[in-house]
From TrEMBL:
The protein, known as: DmsA/YnfE family anaerobic dimethyl sulfoxide reductase, A subunit
Record keywords, A-Z: 4Fe-4S, Iron, Iron-sulfur, Metal-binding
Pfam families the UniProt entry points to: Molybdop_Fe4S4, Molybdopterin, Molydop_binding
One example GO MF annotation: dimethyl sulfoxide reductase activity
A single GO cellular-component term on record: outer membrane-bounded periplasmic space
Domain 4Fe-4S Mo/W bis-MGD-type: 55-116
NCBIfam families per UniProt: dmsA_ynfE
Record family assignment: Belongs to the prokaryotic molybdopterin-containing oxidoreductase family.
GO biological process annotation, one example: anaerobic respiration
SMART domains assigned to the protein according to its UniProt record, in alphabetical order: Molybdop_Fe4S4
Domain of life: Bacteria
Length: 812
């Protein structure tokens, strides 16, 4: 049956439903049932149209965390948004292209006027997680949250206060939700002694922490995507820009990069992706978690057939062969020894060896090695799918090795094996958030352990930084614009008891626009503005373009929503630091100050902020393609890499030391070389007898993670479905569109099956981000992949192994 549209009409109807005393909100739209005592009459509904005003068109943006950032042109009449268009200005030539929104941004109106908008501040009344709240005033909310915060700090110290990951307002300037240190919440906390910080992000934990052991520094750069115009061949390992970089701006870059020289594109992915459809020449399906085995076999062919770039290896790297091993490394520990089977494992990494692991025929591996080595130059890159897996740290380095072996680093048309460079940015000023007096950090993913048994968490057991060990449990969580308390985190059923217990983490403050699955665990649930309801700006860029979009306040905030700035100022008042927090400025006055600073760096911006808001978008063309590590390539003596040796460290002495000193769990490994490590719950693990299918959860065009998941238009064009190959479906008697049960030892999810040869046999994918919607038995009914993923972090990065899972599927 067709669901009604989540439009302003639906919302207006809800006003009637929850008028008066206690109301229960429970419908297909809600992830859990919510009871609001003393609901009153003011809910998040738009004003009734008076029908007299003129229509105005105001610029704003879609600034969620999808890797793009697009302009919106918002039609407003009588204080109500009537239509959302996108950038249709200028001549759309490459380099100054239109910042066109994808279908999600164009569905913004359904998100603004969704019936799940949080109407007013709410305080939990029942047990945590029960879904019972009562309406409170903002004054009460500020007062109680301030008191609780003070209490937590007095009893446990500032390191008991955690700012959780949340990227729903990633693109904002004043409303920024991540990284934690850039948010208004950080400014508030830094005025009262600081907070426990996190490092890395759910996107890139393993590549962020792992790959710099190869190149040095804190992040491995890539050439700009546009530089593919100089490549003969491009090889994408699990990189799917047509779906993960969906803006018109980035799509235009991809087309430009691919078709300027007609560069051949090979895509290695368990799925025939949308990128394969739009720019791919050949698809090589691979079993999840096995790219390091493929890379090793490619290296085997290149070495044995003498296809490697020996002068490059000699000049720019250490650890390739026994002669170039750093001092102290044991004999037989060079990369060449590992590949040829002359190292401790005595296993030559032949194409036949890799074929059994990856599922790719030996002949295709041999041919691919010759193609990569023979292409002049070759753009080798990886998305972040391959590394979001157990032992993904080694996978990121193993793919990087292909660029190193073939000398494609630091040159036009080449790349490092990392993802393409994120693009140029304009030097817009940012909101000052002050310095965090607390230096302790943990990985973005293992915070749940700091609630449960922080005493076990040390530098060598849990990757704690800034201290030898945690000195306090997490007792207070700020969760702003994020759904990572549960939906996006993983191991939802295992997280549930940890979050339910309010003796463990005593206070959870959820600040969001929407009643999400994470909102269920809130003690205080505060409505914040959507970015169309406040003044702000967002800036971004791509290969040859950078831009800023000035976000107008298009409508008044729905219900009692406030900006995060005003919310933090309210709590600051309670803690006696309001003056220090605001410096006497409103949000708009801060923007004026930051705008004046930005104009010093970008004098062509209009004289006043007001004029900038009318102009809407400012773009700049950058003719140069970015080439990562060009200076190092040109002169390695004068421009060494930021690694200890100044060179590419194929054998990493630092990792060799960590391998000796860190405490790891079964199935986790740290190795000095980028070795292939078989994953528990992986392609060749014995558990496949019981759980025969590998499960991944790709990033999907219906949503940006969970955001937009409540928009009916998008549910219609890109429904939530389990991708399953016809061979696996037939073996289970599953027909197209059947409702299926996907399950393992951690959870159950029901969803419709999409039977398609676009996914290889033995692998299924449940697009990540669907809203966890449990039934009475606690089984998810909405295709939420994170009831099936696990909490066990990866070895080195302590990150999220979201794509390493085994499941069974049957007809429901
Ligand atoms: N299984 C699996 N899980 C994954 C992943 C995976 O690949 N597989 N990917 C991971 C990755 S890479 C990431 S980055 C995380 C993302 O996880 P999150 O950062 O939690 O992303 P969202 O689910 O989009 O949640 C963003 C929240 O911000 C709110 N929001 C949106 N716009 C606004 C706004 O304008 N103002 C305010 N105040 N709030 C707003 C939304 O309502 C939503 O609740 O998920 C991770 N989870
Ligand atoms: N439409 C949309 N776009 C998004 C997002 C979104 O939610 N929706 N999220 C944004 C965010 S925050 C991020 S971090 C990025 C994420 O960007 P990515 O992490 O690159 O996205 P994924 O879909 O997880 O993985 C990319 C591809 O890797 C494949 N893959 C999975 N496992 C393996 C493997 O072991 N080996 C190989 N070779 N391939 C594998 C998947 O099938 C997928 O096609 O996307 C961003 N863009
Ligand atoms: S979700 Fe779509 S419209 Fe929004 S920023 Fe990303 S690509 Fe642009
Ligand atoms: Mo991400």
């Amino acid at each position: 049956m067709r669901k009604p549209h989540c439009t302003e009409q639906a919302l207006l109807k809800r006003r009637d439903v929850i008028k008066g005393g206690a109301v229960v909100l429970a419908s297909a739209f809600f992830p859990f049932s919510i009871e609001i005592l003393n609901a009153g009459s003011a809910v998040a509904a738009p004003p009734a149209p008076s029908g007299t005003g003129e229509e105005r068109i105001l610029w704003n943006s879609c600034n969620v965390n999808c890797g793009s950032r697009c302009a919106l042109r918002v039609h407003v009449k009588d204080g109500v948004i009537t239509r959302v268009e996108t950038d249709n200005t200028g001549d759309d030539r490459y380099g100054m292209q239109q910042l066109r929104a994808c279908p999600r941004g164009r569905s913004m109106r359904q998100r603004i006027y969704a019936e799940q908008r949080i109407p007013y501040p709410l305080r939990r009344v029942g047990n945590r997680g029960e879904g019972k709240f009562e309406r409170i005033s903002w004054e009460e909310a500020f007062k109680e949250i301030g008191q609780r915060l003070r209490g937590t700090i007095d009893t446990y110290g500032n390191e008991a206060v955690y700012l959780n990951y949340g990227t729903g307002a990633l693109g904002s300037t004043m409303g920024k939700s991540w990284p934690p240190a850039a948010t208004p919440v950080a400014r508030l906390m830094n005025l009262v002694g600081g907070y426990l910080n996190h490092y890395s992000d759910y996107s890139t934990c393993q590549i962020t922490v792992g790959m710099p052991y190869l190149y040095g520094g804190s992040w491995v750069d890539g050439n700009s995507l546009s530089d593919m115009e100089n490549s003969e061949l491009a090889v994408f390992f699990g990189n799917n820009p047509s779906e993960t970089r969906m803006s018109g701006c980035k799509a235009k870059t991809l087309q430009h990069a691919r078709f300027t020289r007609n560069t051949r594109v090979i895509i290695i992915d368990p799925r025939y992706t949308d990128s394969m459809v739009s720019v791919g020449d050949e698809w090589i399906p691979i079993r999840p978690g096995t790219d390091a085995a493929l890379s090793a076999a490619l290296a085997y062919v290149m070495i044995t057939e003498d296809l490697i770039d020996k002068p490059f290896l000699a000049k720019y790297t250490i650890g390739y062969d026994e002669e170039s091993l750093p001092k102290g490394a044991p004999a037989g520990s060079s990369y060449k020894s590992y590949i040829l089977g002359q190292g401790p494992d005595k296993t030559p990494k032949t194409p036949a060896w890799a074929s059994r692991i990856t599922g790719i025929p030996p002949a295709r591996i041999e041919k691919l090695a010759r193609e990569i080595a023979g292409a002049r130059p070759c753009f080798i890159c990886q998305g972040w799918g391959p590394q979001r897996t157990t032992n993904g740290e080694n996978i990121s380095r193993a793919i990087g090795m292909l660029a190193v072996l073939t000398g494609n680093v630091g040159i036009k048309g080449g790349n490092t094996g990392a993802r393409e460079n994120a693009g140029y940015k304009l030097p817009m000023a940012t909101f000052p958030t002050l310095e965090n007096p607390v230096k302790t950090e943990l990985s973005c993913f293992n915070w749940y352990q700091a609630i449960d048994d922080y005493k076990q968490m040390t530098a060598t057991t849990a990757g704690i930084r800034g201290r030898e060990r945690l000195i306090a449990p997490i007792k207070f969580i700020w969760n702003y614009a994020g759904n990572c308390l549960t939906n996006q985190h993983g191991g939802i059923n295992q997280m549930h008891p940890i979050l339910l217990d309010d003796k463990k983490c005593e206070t959870i403050v959820v600040i969001d626009t929407t009643l999400t699955p994470s909102a269920r665990y809130a003690d205080f649930l505060l409505p914040s503005c959507l970015n169309l309801e406040e003044h702000d700006w967002t800036s971004d860029g791509d290969s040859n373009i950078a831009y800023v979009i000035f976000d107008n306040k298009c409508i008044e905030p729905l219900g009692e929503a406030k900006s995060i700035y005003d919310i933090c100022a309210g709590v600051a008042n309670e803690l006696g630091v309001k003056e220090a927090f605001t410096e006497g400025r409103t949000q708009y006055q801060w923007l004026e100050k930051l705008y004046a600073e930005s104009r010093k760096a970008i004098p062509e911006l209009p004289p006043t902020l007001e004029e900038a808001y009318t102009m809407g978008v400012y773009k700049r063309y950058f003719p140069e393609n970015h080439i990562a590590y060009k200076a190092f390539r040109d002169d390695p003596e004068a421009n060494p890499l930021p690694s200890p040796s100044g060179k590419i460290e194929i054998y990493s002495p630092r990792l060799a030391e960590l391998a000796e000193t860190w405490t790891l769990l079964p199935g986790q490994a740290i190795t000095a070389l980028p070795e292939y490590i078989p994953n528990p719950e992986g392609a060749i693990s014995p558990e496949r007898k019981e759980w025969p299918l590998q499960l991944i959860g790709h990033h999907y065009k219906q949503r940006t993670h969970s955001t937009y998941g409540n928009c009916w238009w998008l549910q219609e064009v890109a429904p939530q479905e389990l991708w399953i190959n016809p061979i696996d479906a037939k073996a289970r008697g599953i027909e197209f569109g059947d409702r299926v049960k996907v399950f393992n030892g951690r959870g159950v999810s029901f969803v419709k099956a999409k039977i398609t040869p676009r996914i290889m046999p033995g692998v299924v994918s449940l697009p990540e981000g669907a809203w966890h919607t449990p039934n009475a038995a606690g089984e998810d009914t909405n295709g939420c992949v994170n009831v099936l993923t696990k909490l066990l972090p990866t070895a080195l990065a302590k990150g999220n192994p979201h794509h390493t899972n085994l499941v069974q599927v049957e007809k429901a």
